[in-house]
Task: inverse folding
């Protein structure tokens, strides 16, 4: 089978997507790549691994040729908070990276996965049950690159027949790798701090409501979407997906039910609060359900139980080393 190449593979999603792809398609058929240069022992631990800067078109061409790549999961990007701190770099990485991926896909006939985000919406979008097709006027550079990225994927599908597929992912909660500078990082940090310290200071207000999903559901959604019969897909830019619409206080309360005494106080970061306030409170993901059978398994309670158990063993194992 043609090989799968993952860009930005060392991030929060890649750390779980690569093992899942390897379990399904075989370890040698999935090439992990990232901007980070790993020492030989680190690269060997996740082999096959290659250094790849997605803003360098030539590097992408060489990798796709060398490994006979048929599918690219393009994860490399700057996330919302990091992007707002460095807008010019965010444009370069998020847009040049995707453009290079789509061009190489055009040259070699690759299928492409593009992770869009709830950040592709803005303050003029209906915030509750945001429809699949809605106004997209984001006020962050991250959102601008995600909308432009969606449109570019749509264009390459329509104009060149490239098999582009995408998801508008909500905040992802996970225990394997720490998040990389997004506005929803508080949701992950809350779990780590609950297990380690029993308390957390949250950078968004208690009543901030956003969509979230547990990483195993996100990984399953990406792989299911990519395996779906092409004729079933009405949308080539990105599908709305979500598993829960929750406030910071509701996540804190779910954790406190299982970690007695856990407390959260709130010191609002105006930059990240403004970003969160411009995003939907809940998405309508009925198109994903209808077109390719999207069905997340975890709700807030079951995610909390699993997350706390796995984090406790991860942190205990780290302590005993
Ligand atoms: N994590 C979430 O909650 C979330 C939600 C919605 C969308 N997304 C999207 O999913 C994708 C992956 O997110 P993540 O959370 O794993 O991000 P992350 O920040 O954890 O990881 C991104 C990876 O990209 C790499 N990278 C940065 N610049 C690069 C370059 N020029 N070339 C190659 N690699 C480069 C980084 O080294 C990092 O390992 C992004 O496009 C992000 O916008 C993530």
Result:
């Amino acid at each position: 089978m043609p090989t799968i190449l993952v860009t930005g593979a060392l991030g929060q999603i890649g750390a779980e997507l690569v093992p899942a792809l390897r379990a399904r398609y075989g370890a040698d058929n999935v090439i992990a790549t990232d901007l980070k240069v790993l020492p030989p022992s680190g690269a060997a631990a996740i082999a096959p691994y290659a250094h790849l800067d997605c803003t360098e078109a030539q590097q992408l061409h060489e990798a796709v040729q060398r490994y006979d790549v048929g599918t690219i999961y393009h994860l490399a990007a700057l996330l919302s908070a990091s992007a707002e701190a460095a807008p010019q770099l965010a444009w370069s990485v998020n847009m040049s990276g995707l453009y290079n991926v789509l061009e190489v896909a055009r040259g070699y006939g690759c299928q492409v996965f593009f992770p869009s985000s709830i950040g592709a919406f803005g303050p003029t979008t209906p915030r509750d049950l945001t429809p699949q097709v809605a106004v997209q006027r984001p006020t962050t550079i991250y959102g601008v690159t995600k909308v432009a990225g969606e449109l570019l994927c749509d264009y390459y599908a329509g104009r060149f027949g490239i098999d582009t597929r995408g998801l508008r992912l909500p905040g992802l909660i996970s225990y394997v790798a720490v998040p990389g500078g997004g506005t929803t990082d508080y949701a992950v940090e809350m779990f780590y701090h609950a297990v380690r310290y029993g308390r957390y200071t949250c950078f968004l207000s208690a009543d901030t409501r956003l969509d979230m999903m547990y990483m195993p559901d996100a990984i399953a959604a990406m792989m299911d979407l990519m395996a779906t019969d092409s004729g079933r897909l009405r949308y080539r830019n990105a599908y709305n997906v979500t598993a829960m619409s929750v406030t910071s206080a509701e996540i804190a309360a779910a954790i406190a039910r299982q970690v007695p005494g856990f407390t959260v106080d709130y010191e609002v970061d105006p930059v990240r609060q403004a970003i969160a306030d411009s995003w939907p409170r809940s998405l309508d993901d009925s198109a994903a359900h209808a077109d390719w059978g999207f069905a997340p398994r975890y709700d807030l309670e079951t995610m909390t139980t699993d997350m706390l158990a796995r984090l406790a063993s991860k942190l205990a194992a780290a302590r005993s080393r």
Remarks:
- Residues 7-8, 10-14, 34-36, 52-55, 75-77, 79, 93, 97, 115, 117, 169, 171-172, 179-182, 184 surround nicotinamide-adenine-dinucleotide (CB under 6 Å).
- DSSP finds twelve helices and twelve strands in the chain.
- The mean pLDDT is 97.
- The radius of gyration is 19 Å.
